[in-house]
């Protein structure tokens, strides 16, 4: 069966520090991968998605970037965190690029202080 | 533009009652809809989905109803249990095959 791993679960970082969140998927090949952000008590905002290695699409201008160095690995990064980067970050995967039935990881709660 | 929203931000129900969570969408061309459950501090879990060529789909204790005439989607939970307490999100497939999520409804189940 397929599983998705996301770490760390919680992260507290000072403003201006770098960020690296990692997500890996097991049990499938060539998944579509997504990064979402969720502000407290709000819905999910799509940040990046990837249909293949090295292929990244950005949804909104921001202080973050994403990379996909391997088929089942998706990384969310920042060179210098801002206070507004705080939030709950979720990685997700889907079998196809039809934009249906995403499976989410357990999330990373990022607090930028 | 495309949007997905919810009528009620918080729904309180008694244990054992049926729950109905509503969702409105604006894009009449959307052909796929999905419901997720999110418990505090966790990632959303898939509950059930439905395509626009269907009006109703049933799962275990859950039913999704789609009314394309009024662009309305609902999730019905039968015999609501304390474990059903969570935030529920509806989403529709928008342009470029992206899922567009609503703001969510919190379901609180009281004994």
The percentage helix of chain B is: under 10%
Cα separation of the termini of chain A? 38 Å
Unreliably modeled segments of chain A: none
Q: Catalogue the unreliable spans of chain B.
A: none
Strand content of chain B: over 45%
Identify the overall geometry of chain A: globular
- Rounded to an integer in angstroms, the radius of gyration calculated over CA atoms of chain B is 13 Å
Instruction: Report the count of strand segments of chain B.
Output: 11
Largest interface: A-B, 22 and 21 residues
Given helix and strand content, the structural type of chain A is mainly beta
What topology does this entry show?
The complex is a heterodimer of chains A (113) and B (111).
Chain A: E1 3-7, E2 10-13, E3 19-26, E4 32-38, E5 44-52, E6 55-58, E7 65-70, E8 73-78, E9 87-94, E10 103-104, E11 108-112
Parallel strand pairs in A: 2-11
Antiparallel strand pairs in A: 1-3, 3-8, 4-5, 4-9, 5-6, 7-8, 9-10, 9-11
Chain B: E1 4-5, E2 10-14, E3 19-25, E4 32-38, E5 45-51, E6 56-58, E7 62-67, E8 72-77, E9 86-93, E10 99-101, E11 105-110
Parallel strand pairs in B: 2-11
Antiparallel strand pairs in B: 1-3, 3-8, 4-5, 4-9, 6-7, 7-8, 9-10, 9-11
């Amino acid at each position: 069966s397929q599983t998705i791993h996301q770490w760390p679960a919680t992260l507290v970082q000072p403003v201006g520090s770098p960020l690296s969140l990692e997500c890996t998927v097991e049990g499938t090949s060539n998944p579509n991968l997504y990064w979402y952000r969720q502000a407290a008590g709000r819905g999910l905002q799509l940040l990046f998605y990837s249909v293949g290695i090295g292929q990244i699409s950005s949804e909104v201008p921001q202080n973050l970037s994403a990379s996909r160095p391997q088929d089942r690995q998706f990384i969310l990064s920042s060179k210098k965190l801002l206070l507004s980067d705080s939030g709950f970050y979720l990685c997700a995967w889907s079998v196809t690029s039809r934009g249906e039935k995403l499976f989410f990881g357990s999330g990373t709660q990022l607090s930028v202080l | 533009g495309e949007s997905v929203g919810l009528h009620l931000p918080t729904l309180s129900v008694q244990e054992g009652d049926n729950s109905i969570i509503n969702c409105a969408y604006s894009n009449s061309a959307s052909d796929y809809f999905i419901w997720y459950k999110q418990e505090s501090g966790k990632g959303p879990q898939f509950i059930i989905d439905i395509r626009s060529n269907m009006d109703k789909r049933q799962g275990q204790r859950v039913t999704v109803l789609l009314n394309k005439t009024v662009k309305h989607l609902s999730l019905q939970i039968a015999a609501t249990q304390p474990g059903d307490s969570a935030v529920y999100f509806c989403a529709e497939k928008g342009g470029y095959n992206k899922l567009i999520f609503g703001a969510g409804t919190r379901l609180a189940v009281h004994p």
